[in-house]
């Protein structure tokens, strides 16, 4: 009797990491430490936030005494934002960072990143998401185009294919048989791009016609 073994599953978590303005020059060195600690850098960008954007990012800290200094510090120069992925990414990244106060980190966690690169409680070199919900919010803030929803599997995947993929693909293959192009692969690829049901439709031509 054949035994059905469950498919192996790998649970990958994502967290946001920030290299703050005062240590951006250590970017390559810090990234090397991140990779050697078992993280995958899924996305990365260098940007400079305005004080208003910093206020929005740290909205949960609003009203605290250090809030004005925090937003001024975080908007003082470019920073590097990264999406890190691995098993239990949030807790492992927080462990690698060490305590938020770099002075205390040097006493209690001397090998942590904040102990090595940080200066004090405010200028602590790096940021990490506190929880899964904060990671999702912060990743969306820094990477608005990122897709965080889980990839469908099993019956959900079959339902998605039947509802959204197969009808368009069938229509494309039917048109391909009728057209019989010299390069069928390129023709079908162009056809699918042109007839993508999720493709945004521009309305300016209709508006211009109404004004004529």
Automatic annotation (TrEMBL):
<keyword id="KW-0418">Kinase</keyword>
<keyword id="KW-0808">Transferase</keyword>
<dbReference type="InterPro" id="IPR012410">
    <property type="entry name" value="NDK_H5"/>
</dbReference>
<comment type="subunit">
    <text>Component of the axonemal radial spoke complex 1 (RS1), at least composed of spoke head proteins RSPH1, RSPH3, RSPH9 and the cilia-specific component RSPH4A or sperm-specific component RSPH6A, spoke stalk proteins RSPH14, DNAJB13, DYDC1, ROPN1L and NME5, and the anchor protein IQUB. Interacts with IQUB.</text>
</comment>
<keyword id="KW-0282">Flagellum</keyword>
<protein>
    <recommendedName>
        <fullName>Nucleoside diphosphate kinase homolog 5</fullName>
    </recommendedName>
</protein>
<dbReference type="InterPro" id="IPR034907">
    <property type="entry name" value="NDK-like_dom"/>
</dbReference>
<dbReference type="GO" id="GO:0003341">
    <property type="term" value="P:cilium movement"/>
</dbReference>
<dbReference type="GO" id="GO:0005929">
    <property type="term" value="C:cilium"/>
</dbReference>
<dbReference type="Pfam" id="PF00334">
    <property type="entry name" value="NDK"/>
</dbReference>
<keyword id="KW-0221">Differentiation</keyword>
<keyword id="KW-0966">Cell projection</keyword>
<comment type="similarity">
    <text>Belongs to the NDK family.</text>
</comment>
<dbReference type="GO" id="GO:0004550">
    <property type="term" value="F:nucleoside diphosphate kinase activity"/>
</dbReference>
<dbReference type="GO" id="GO:0016787">
    <property type="term" value="F:hydrolase activity"/>
</dbReference>
<keyword id="KW-0217">Developmental protein</keyword>
<dbReference type="GO" id="GO:0006228">
    <property type="term" value="P:UTP biosynthetic process"/>
</dbReference>
<keyword id="KW-0963">Cytoplasm</keyword>
<dbReference type="GO" id="GO:0006241">
    <property type="term" value="P:CTP biosynthetic process"/>
</dbReference>
<feature type="domain" description="Nucleoside diphosphate kinase-like">
    <location>
        <begin position="12"/>
        <end position="150"/>
    </location>
</feature>
<keyword id="KW-0378">Hydrolase</keyword>
<dbReference type="InterPro" id="IPR007858">
    <property type="entry name" value="Dpy-30_motif"/>
</dbReference>
<keyword id="KW-0969">Cilium</keyword>
<keyword id="KW-0206">Cytoskeleton</keyword>
<dbReference type="InterPro" id="IPR001564">
    <property type="entry name" value="Nucleoside_diP_kinase"/>
</dbReference>
<dbReference type="GO" id="GO:0006183">
    <property type="term" value="P:GTP biosynthetic process"/>
</dbReference>
<keyword id="KW-0744">Spermatogenesis</keyword>
<dbReference type="InterPro" id="IPR036850">
    <property type="entry name" value="NDK-like_dom_sf"/>
</dbReference>
<dbReference type="GO" id="GO:0007286">
    <property type="term" value="P:spermatid development"/>
</dbReference>
<dbReference type="GO" id="GO:1902176">
    <property type="term" value="P:negative regulation of oxidative stress-induced intrinsic apoptotic signaling pathway"/>
</dbReference>
<dbReference type="Pfam" id="PF05186">
    <property type="entry name" value="Dpy-30"/>
</dbReference>
